Amino acid sequence: MYGFGDMIQKLKKDPKTLIFTEGSDPRILEAASRLLAGNFIKPILLGSEKEINDAAEEAGYNIRGAQIIDPENFDRFDEMVDLFCELRKSKGMTPEKAVPILKQTNYFGTMLVKMGLGDCLLGGATYSTADTVRPALQIIKTKPENTIVSSCFILVRPSATGENEVIAMADCGININPNEDELVEICGETVNCAQRFGVDPKVAFLSFSTKGSAKDDTVTKMQNATRKAQERYPEIPIDGELQFDAAVSPRVAKQKAPGSPVAGHANTFIFPDINAGNLGYKIAQRMGNFEAYGPILLGLNAPINDLSRGCNAIEVYSMSIITASLA
Predict the structure, then answer these.
(1) Residue 198 C-alpha from the chain's centroid
(2) CA dist., res. 143 & res. 298, Å (int)
(3) What is the mean pLDDT of residues 223-231?
(4) How many whole angstroms separate alpha carbon 189 and alpha carbon 213?
(5) Quick check: helix, strand or coil at residue 19?
(6) Does residue 1 carry a pLDDT above 70?
(7) Out of 127-131, 159-163, 315-319, least confident range
């Protein structure tokens, strides 16, 4: 497991408030108890105070010190409704429509972030990815310089030197078939995320072709995206289009992409579409013995992240640290 030592040390100096949308879930409670013991993230658990406390007591988790907020008993709910109606007025939102929506903890929690009552949010233990991302897009919205929300996975495994090998892959979870400009945006956000994990990014735009060895519209897309990314981020080593073997094997790189500043040593991989990305990270995870952290959502005005509904408490704990570190 990735140690998260540097992230934890930074958070201890500046603890963040993290909202959990599924406050009574045993996996959330176990992770929250660990975070409280570490004293570097301040958890807010959403839901009925009685249900949350009863669930924690039954499971044996100490959550003393955690703030619990119940959407059914929130003293600033009217203010939240007014703000939500203002944010969604172009969609015809009214208080009557807003109240039942905001009673749902995925929307309620996202509004707490919007109102400045939390730094970041982690959901999805029981909600679908769409139910976590949709409120974020509607309420938090993308950064001014961004046009899309994207995602990356950070993959970690021990190396022969005893240190961790850390790589980044994107977009493996959100954008089905990004165009070349969206790929440039995905590249920039993934580079920033990789750097949080101590990676010195060397970016490969991946394809089934290396340097024009094949012809196809998808090859042209990756060639153009590479050129635009190089122009936008001149300080980052970026190359493409590269086949995966040319990207990671020095021997193959010497044959297929001589003189490339990235080929043979890439550690940040941009895939042409979600088919390739999703398959790629799962192959690395299952057959390459990498631990996979993500999807880490990128491009939003505040960190909102999504858990797998099959997650365990260790994964919740890990994603909590990642999410807070992005705040």
Answers:
(1) 16
(2) 10
(3) 98
(4) 29
(5) strand
(6) no
(7) 159-163
Task: Determine whether 298 is exposed, middle or buried from the number of CB atoms within 10 Å of its CB (0-12, 13-18, 19+).
Answer: buried
> Hey, is 131 helix, strand or coil?
helix
The answer to whether 120 and 326 are in contact (CB under 8 A) is yes
Considering the four listed CATH numbers 3.30.565.10, 3.90.76.10, 3.40.50.10750, 1.10.1040.10, the one that applies to the domain covering 150-292 is 3.40.50.10750
Q: Quick one: pLDDT band at residue 128, thresholds 50, 70, 90? A: confident
- Tokens 């497991």 correspond to 1
Give the pLDDT band (50/70/90) at residue 2: low
Find where tokens 């909102």 sit. Answer: 304
Q: Are 221 and 183 in contact (CB under 8 A)?
A: yes
Q: Which of 70, 9, 60, 64 is nearest to 42 (CA)?
A: 64
Backbone dihedral angles phi then psi of residue 97, each to the nearest 5 degrees: -75, -35
CATH topology of domain 5-141+301-325: Rossmann fold (3.40.50)
Residue 103 above 80 pLDDT? yes
Whether 269 contacts 116, CB under 8 Å:
no
300, β-bridge pairs? 142
Rounded mean pLDDT, 125-140: 88
State the amino acid at position 191 in one-letter form. Answer: V
